[in-house]
Amino acid sequence: MMIGIVLWICGASKIIWARVTPTELWGSFSPRMYDLEKRLQESKQKRLEFEHKRMEADAELKEVKHLKSMLKQQAIQMVEQRRHFEKQQASQMAEQRAHYDNMMMQMLSYITSQSTQSSSDH
């Protein structure tokens, strides 16, 4: 802080500038100085509390992003597993259908041969 002191010398004024601290200017026990120091300490405390809360919020955000990533990966895996299961089910159903068709053809062939034999026996 700069302060100017005005000197009157022989009818003329002269300003002398000096660098002083607030304590030097108002004294260490000044009520105003005490109030300013108290406000400064409160501001520092609030800043520390804010920084702490910000760090906690950053940590929570990082955790949420990690969980989101994990859930997304699990969802992708579940979709892939479902597709694989559906393909497997479709393949099994096609095999069963082919097996049943084959059995039906064998039964039809047997019935036809039996019917032909019984007609020729009569």
Automatic annotation (TrEMBL):
It comes from the Eukaryota. Residues 1-18 form the signal peptide. Residues 33-74 form a coiled coil. Keywords: Coiled coil, Signal. This is Uncharacterized protein.
